[in-house]
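INFO  loader      accepted 1 record
INFO  loader      residues=444
INFO  predictor   begin
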Amino acid sequence: MPVPDPNPVRITVIGAGYLGLTHAACMADLGHDVLALDVDQAKIDRMARGEAPFFEPGLEPMLQKSIDSGRLRFTTSYAEAGRFGELHFVCVGTPSAADGAADLSYVHAAVDSLAPHLESRCLIVGKSTVPVGTARALSSRIGQLAPAGSEAELAWNPEFLREGYAIQDSLLPDRLVFGVGSAWAEDLLRSVYAQPLAQGVPCLVMDLETAELVKVAANAFLATKISFVNAMAEVCEAVGADVLPLAAALGHDGRIGSRFLAPGLGFGGGCLPKDIRAFRSTSLRLGLPSLATILGEVDAINMGRRARVVELARSALGGSVAARRVAALGIAFKPDSDDVRDSASLDVCGRLAREGAVVSVHDPVATANAAVVEPSLTYSANLMETVAGADLVLHLTEWQEYRAVDPAALALAVAEPKIIDARCILDPGPWRAAGWSFQAVGRP
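INFO  predictor   done
INFO  writer      dumping tokens
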């Protein structure tokens, strides 16, 4: 099907973090005129030069292309954004509060700052992950603050980005979800996404509350699936079974499927952990203890995988890691990302360091971010330097280059050829053939 020429929409993107900057660049790439806003002037200046403040494959070339075309600009002015935009995407963060609930202060600040500058008909579109009921409350707030009154309409269009695949997920997502209150809002969103819709991307139109729930429900289900297979890894360790063929057999069941059925160290990052905790808080607020219990157990199983890898490290080193040299392969929460937010890999390394281990870390792109969080670790850009003299090697983030490493070459550099594959993804055959003591979670 031929892709139609876009009818450019004047779009603002409020919040130029991971979600916002990626979304802004992709909207410009689709042919729209985009103004991205952030309150951090230094970050705005950097992005205006075509520099992304985080690593995402393919983003910087797209960013530069969009800037050079004139379709993407940056500002710190809400007044400028209000004058410019027909449609305003709100892409600010919703981090965890101390009690696990979503902290909506950035969302409220963005809306309160933008609304007084909305003087003509426009659509404000939330993309941030929020508790159900947030959109309805924001809509009322906008109606009170915006000079345009009811002509400043609110919609919800949740994001489903995977770090490392964010451009693909923006330009050709699995589905588009529109939470709208009018045909006009739906039509405007369809204009914005005309190209992916013409390429066959499914579009689901619903009310605001249902659209808010789609994202948190999806993340809760994925987290549950990951935690379930990791619980099965614990069973396999207890009885001497192998979790990999078990997971493969489960994945062939069409009712279950193989995606996100990978055992290992568990999930981390800026979305799944905070979203299941926020959804649990929402469940308790709504008086739904059964769902809250499920989500609490999912979180506990996931965090338990980190403790289990530390336990395996102690066992491999004779009961204590104190004063022993441990080399960690990978520190980002997942490959193809420099994100260390709630990274299980970084958490394991920090726990070992606090028990007295001397921990050296290699990661292709995430060491600078990790050093801010865990300065007690030693970081190196050279893999052989990282493993030199190590008593134990931990495979913690499944970067492709670690699968391709020569076990025999690594064996020459370490003090003891011992490795724990916490991601359950390395082929044990070549490692054992090269003289390594090889252990993977959930495997005999």
